[in-house]
């Protein structure tokens, strides 16, 4: 199956305007953390993490959080390597 990256990430992705917090929250979700777990890691409230994730989703024009994570991975904004894979 051939995936068209431009189609998958939309016409005008706004990844350049993602804040450092939004990127870090997306990265932690990509690693399998829930928002409350990411909040503990980042020393933020769950509300702050949820606001960052919502902001990232809206900026990336994603239909849901997993779509936002996928877009961020395709664009290289977040790392998609498995942190548990032996090196």
Automatic annotation (TrEMBL):
> Is this entry keyworded Transport?
no
One of its Pfam families is GerE
SMART domains the UniProt entry points to: HTH_LUXR
Keyword Lipid metabolism recorded: no
Q: Which InterPro entries match?
A: Sig_transdc_resp-reg_C-effctor, Tscrpt_reg_LuxR_C, WH-like_DNA-bd_sf
Domain HTH luxR-type, chain residue ranges per copy: 11-76
User: What keyword terms does UniProt attach to this protein?
Assistant: Plasmid
**Record protein name field:** LuxR C-terminal-related transcriptional regulator
